[in-house]
Amino acid sequence: MRESFGSDGQPGSYTDIDYTDCLFLVGHNVAATQTVLWSRILDRLDGPNPPKLVVVDPRMSDTARRATVHLAPRIGTNLAVLNGIQHLLFKNGWINQDFVSKHVIGLEQLEQTVLDYTPEKVEEISGIPAKDLKEAAKLIGNSNSLLSTALQGVYQSNQATASACQINNINLLRGLIGRPGSGVLQMNGQPTAQNNREAGCDGEFPGFRNHMNPVHMQELADLWNIDSIKVPHWNEPTHVQNLLSYIEDGSIRMMWISGTNPLVSLPNLPRIRKLLTDPGLFVVCQDIFMTETAAIADVVLPAAQWGEKTGCFTNVDRTVHLSHKAVEPPGEAKSDLDIFLDYGRRMNFKDKDGNLLLPYKSSEEVFCAWKKLSHGRPCDYTGLSYEKLTGGSGIQWPCNEANPQGVERLFSDAKFFTDIDVCESFGHDLETGAPYSKAEYAALNPAGRAILKACHYSPSMEEPNEEYPFQRWDPISKQPMFKAGAVRIEKIDASEKPQIPELQSAAEESCSSKGVDVTAVDDSLKRKRHLESWLGETYESVKQLSDIYTNLLPDLIHDLEIEGGVRVLRRITEDVRKRLSEQVDKFGEDVCGGSRKATTLREAIFPPIDTQRSPYEVMETLQGLHIYLSHIEGGLNALIPVSQACWDLDFFEAVQFGQTSMHRMQAWVNQQIMVRAPQSLLVPALVRD
């Protein structure tokens, strides 16, 4: 959603099922996963004027059995299939040119990307017969309305994010969004996942705010009355595979698991069991059942389930519901909210004025605070209240003064959340997963238009085969593939008893031997912090840079323009050195190691002093300077999130000043290289003996 529309939030509505001419279900077996919704679809399929149904699923599921066209791709080839459909939309002129010319960007790149995905090529990749792909594209390309959905068959497969974006693309190319019967529902894997995303419970930020937008982060800081540097926005969210690696490395010593069961749900379960039962990890499990994970936890916090607490939840189509407590929770069980509030009080979290950071006494008080957080954002709740939500069947956000009864579907005006000051994300490179910068996003100039994101198909890291038919982890979308490792399923004769070790029992036995005080063992003497090493190398490199400008470059380059520029660069470098020296005094540094590495790089990059330098050799020297500046910039890049994680504003500002200064110097060096390049590289020069 963020990649295509600028922000999370489902464009469509469940009511679109009642109007649509064509349903496009990708990796979404509605008959098994959403039985109530399937009943609604069956009413349409078995009623007058039934919609066409296109299903993409490698299995002949109950949903696929009702399909007009069933596309059964090889596992992991969704992207090739979706690119193939778009190829046919372009080829056959099934594009709403008026809509795309006004309301989307990225059309030319998308058309160029899907050009080679002919039905024959897609058949070769996916196994889908070319005639079936053509028939599916024809149905989609000629329908007056189109409702597209996706679920785990997309999200937990190869190139998940890229594939989900292509589903959005198809509706955008057809101009079928924001209209009755037309839209996209990127379904959630869990019933309350949508409001978790709104509130920022999955590593995002409340109200779909952009962690790379300082204004958004300052809004949160002001609402919470804390310093903005204490809002943890220094990087992309840490996904679960990184968390597990940090546990493995020993840099995470405590894990609080709430409402999920990783000893069953995560891939590579032997590794998960080993990590979560490690004596050095303190595990807290908050759940309504004594799950496999709770059984190995050091502390179990019994939680209340839905009928035992009051609170709101949001459906996939943005419908907000209020669930009132029906019965008291049993025993010591408490609602998740009460557990977190109790923890906040015990930790004595305070705001800037010394008041409790979490002063709330009830779910309704928290809801009122949430309304303030959502104000002016795509998921605006300011028009909602417990009184308004009591009774009825929920209200779809945004619900505010302009839309007091909510909004049935988004983008009816074809205005998307892509304005640079509004968007939740600046997007990512769909092939590498790298986030785009604000400058890169600004260059796109989406300005309220949707973004067509293109991506080529790449085979998954582990191709399935008959022996190992399932896949594991997609490193770009950070999703497990079918929540399984590379496994083999075998039938066992009924008379045989499988000789399989009881791994859960072994995990519990391992955990029971941890002992009460084992996690309190002080191993600090065995640990070493590496900040001093990194800071030392960066600082010593800056000191060397000052010396390079003072003593080396004047002897290597005899050019008045460059000499004048070098004097300015030397002054800038000295300012950076002074700012960083204060942080070195505060945190310390590895002087010897840092100086040694800086000197080694300098000697490798720059030649010995030579009073006779040709234009080509001047170019080489400038290139060496660019490399050296890039080395320092890399060091400073790492220190930006470190300084934020330290909640040290002086440290952050010093590093930020260094970053800006490196960019200025690199810009000057780049300009000098570009000015000299044609003459130095194209015109033959005398070769010295």
From TrEMBL:
Keyword tags: Iron, Iron-sulfur, Metal-binding
Gene Ontology MF terms: iron-sulfur cluster binding; metal ion binding; oxidoreductase activity
Domain Molybdopterin oxidoreductase: start-end pairs: 15-340
Signal peptide span: none
Protein name stated in the entry: Nitrate reductase
Organism classification: Eukaryota, Fungi, Dikarya, Ascomycota, Pezizomycotina
One Pfam family recorded for the sequence: Molybdopterin
Acyltransferase keyword on record: no
